[in-house]
Amino acid sequence: MKKTVIIQGSSKSYGNTHKVIAYLNSNNEFDIVDLKTKNIGFFDYDFNNSNDDFIPLMEEIIAKYDTLIFATPVYWYSMSGTLKVFFDRLSDLLHYKKELGRQLRGKNMAMISNSGANDLKDGFTMPFKESANYLGMNYIGDVHAWFTNDESNLTEEAKENLDNFKKSL
Ligand SMILES: Cc1cc2nc3c(=O)[nH]c(=O)nc-3n(C[C@H](O)[C@H](O)[C@H](O)COP(=O)(O)O)c2cc1C
User: Fold this and answer.
1) Domain covering 4-168, topology
2) Over residues 111-133, mean pLDDT
3) Tell me, what's the pLDDT at 143?
4) Best of 32, 75, 119 for a ligand 1 pocket test (most atoms within 8 Å of beta carbon)
5) Which residues line ligand 1 (CB under 6 A)?
6) Distance 16 CA to ligand 1 centre (A)
7) What pLDDT does 1 receive?
8) What is the pTM of this model?
9) Which atom of ligand 1 is nearest to the CA of 76?
10) pLDDT value of residue 2
């Protein structure tokens, strides 16, 4: 059984975030979940969307994986909206699915960001670190990837950083 899942949170299934994941997963050793293919609604205080894809997805992730790697583009200096909606929905696990939420404790979290340049702003990683801390997960690191000027390829430096990140997992 594979123990690490990469959770892709981009508005484009086969855009730059996918390129970063494809580079990291060249040996096909990780499973990938593309949040764009899931029907996951905004957090709702009345839990009216409790029957969408979120809970079954979390049941599968929690059962199968020890390490969750979030992959996000930088959109407006933050994680993508797709991924933020997913994080907001983790609140469901603090209410009507507490037992499921507790099973996140002791699992590992990591994060891969990407944008056009090597200029990730201070604070970008904070929501990931603090969320891991709140959920009792171990935050094991992050890496930022960026692209050549025409955005067609990862830069050599970003590839090296991704290689080192992978070794550190
Ligand atoms: C809505 C939107 C907002 C963006 N905001 C930023 C930003 O704040 N800083 C930045 O460096 N790049 C920004 N970008 C560029 C993306 O981070 C970059 O193109 C990324 O590689 C796109 O990944 P994707 O193809 O998976 O969406 C933005 C792109 C989009 C579409």
Assistant:
1) Rossmann fold (3.40.50)
2) 97
3) 98
4) 75
5) 10-12, 15-17, 73-77, 114-117
6) 9
7) 47
8) 0.97
9) 8
10) 59
Nearest CA owner, ligand 1 atom 11: 115
What CA–CA distance (Å, rounded) separates 28 from 45? 39
- The pick from 18, 24, 76 for probing ligand 1's pocket by mutation, whose C-beta has the most ligand atoms within 8 angstroms, reads 76
Whether 73 and 16 have beta carbons less than 8 Å apart is answered as yes
Residue in the structure block whose two tokens are 């025409």: 150
Q: Residue 163 has which token pair? A: 């290689």
CA of 74 to the centre of ligand 1 (A): 5
What is the average pLDDT score of the chain? 96
Rounded CA separation 99/169 (Å): 27
What CA–CA distance (Å, rounded) separates 4 from 67?
Answer: 5
Residue of minimum CA distance from atom 3 in ligand 1: 75
From the list 44, 70, 40, 71, the residue with the least C-alpha distance to 53 is 40
Boundaries of every domain in the chain? 4-168
Q: pLDDT tens-digit profile of 17-49?
A: 999 999 999 999 999 999 999 999 999 999 999
Indicate the pairing of strand 138-146 with strand 108-115: parallel
